[in-house]
Design goal:
Layout (H helix, E strand, L loop, with lengths): L7 H7 L13 H5 L11 H9 L2 H5 L12 H5 L6 H16 L4 H7 L1 H20 L6 H7 L4 H34 L5 H17 L1 H8 L14 H25 L8 H27 L10 H26 L4 H19 L8 H18 L1
Helix pairs in contact: 6-7, 6-10, 7-8, 8-10, 8-16, 10-17, 11-17, 13-14, 14-15, 15-16
The structure holds iron/sulfur cluster (2 copies).
The site of one iron/sulfur cluster has 16 residues, from helix 5 and helix 6.
Length: 372
């Protein structure tokens, strides 16, 4: 039985939605959404849940993750109730409920906390990295004040803690949604569904359909500036850079001639990442559509970190080409590694979380369709 939370609308505002009580239930938002349908009805239904205080209905729903935040619904809403922003806020709200530490809630609710925590973590990760190279002067100076082993062990604990938290969040989400969907896993259907999820994650066909929709601001624009392509660029760029880094690490010889395939992969991926993040930041600064008008501090930091990681990556590549060993290049290496580690460490607590929550929701969605 669902309990009613009379403060839900108030709580949701802290996660970045407007006053959706101005909604008069006309249904226009659901009508223009190219993704919603009889199998997944949103965003109007979630406005009702929000108004009625049905927290459990929200966090046990896979449907909030099927929305790609295109903002078409907000653009056409006659009451400026911003249903697209509500969907984004519901995803943040749900992420905060799934992960058990309460850190996501603090990061999403308070821009100041988000900023201070992220910067403090960056400093800590910087110190942790210095424990890997304990013989350089700055490390020796630091370890006069704080014992080497303490920083190193704390760093390892932080990584393990974040990993466990991300995994717990995923399990909690699975339990919540399955309480509603009640799927019974069968091998054949599971494999078929996993295939569908992978295809959707890498093609984001449904997101593309938002851009091409007749109500969309982007319909007549060039593909290269459409949100789908920008999201695709960022995802491709990040995954490519991660692969190139892992290859370099495994092969333990990032030398130019020997491992050129990972160099090419890194360069191309870096270009995709930088392009996607710069244009997205421009859209967010200019608030070009309602989808870009509400940006939380956590979202700004996420994009800025991605961009800086890409730029410092190119700097380092240039340094390798020119064989330039200098203090400045070492500093850039430190910044680049801290940024990359921070993105990984904050995986479960930042916008990045959608990279594993959304595929799980898609899994439920496709599995249910297959069983019909
Ligand atoms: S959010 Fe706007 S478009 Fe959607 S039902 Fe309410 S008033 Fe209508
Ligand atoms: S933001 Fe886009 S995908 Fe999400 S509910 Fe609105 S129209 Fe649908």
């Amino acid at each position: 039985m669902n309990s009613i939370n009379p403060k839900l609308a108030c709580d949701l505002k802290k996660f970045g939605t407007f006053d959706f009580s101005s909604c008069y239930n006309c249904g226009q938002c659901t009508a223009v959404c190219s993704i919603t349908g009889p199998d997944a009805s949103f965003p109007r239904m979630f406005i009702r849940y929000g108004m009625l205080g049905l927290t459990e209905e929200i966090i046990s729903s896979k449907d909030i993750w099927l929305c790609y935040a295109c903002g078409d619904c907000s653009e056409t809403c006659p009451r400026q109730a911003s249903p697209g922003d509500l969907m984004a806020a519901l995803r943040r709200f749900s992420m905060a409920k799934y992960e058990p530490t309460g850190l996501s809630a603090m990061i999403y609710k308070s821009n100041w906390f988000s900023l201070v925590f992220t910067l403090a973590l960056a400093v800590f990760l910087g110190f942790f990295l210095l424990t890997i190279k304990p013989d350089i002067p700055v490390s020796r100076w630091l370890f006069n004040f704080v014992p080497f082993q303490i920083i190193h062990d704390l760093g390892m604990i932080a990584f393990i803690f974040m990993g466990i938290t991300a995994f717990t969040g995923l399990i909690n989400m699975y339990r919540k949604i399955n309480r509603k969907e009640k799927i019974k896993l069968r091998l054949k259907n599971t494999l078929l569904t996993v295939k569908q999820v992978i295809a959707e994650v890498f093609s984001m066909k449904r997101y593309r359909s938002c851009d091409d929709d007749k109500f969309s601001y982007w319909q007549s624009k060039n593909l290269l500036v459409k949100p789908w392509f920008l999201h695709f660029s960022i995802m491709l760029g990040f995954l490519g850079l991660l692969t190139a880094t892992v290859l370099d690490f495994i092969l333990k010889d990032p030398a130019l001639k020997t491992w050129w395939p990972s160099r090419i992969l890194g360069t191309v991926s870096g270009l995709f990442l930088i392009y996607g993040t710069i244009i997205t930041l421009i859209y967010r600064i200019g608030k070009v559509t309602p989808a870009y008008s509400q940006t939380r501090m956590a979202d700004w930091l996420f994009l800025i970190f991605l961009l800086l990681a890409g730029i410092t990556g190119f700097w380092l590549e240039l340094a390798v080409f020119t064989d330039a060993a200098s203090t400045l290049n070492n500093l850039v290496l430190l910044v680049h590694t801290v940024l990359s580690m921070e993105l990984v460490v904050l995986f479960a607590f930042s916008k990045f979380g959608h990279a594993f929550y959304r595929p799980l929701a898609l899994f439920f969605h496709f599995y249910k369709n297959l069983e019909k």
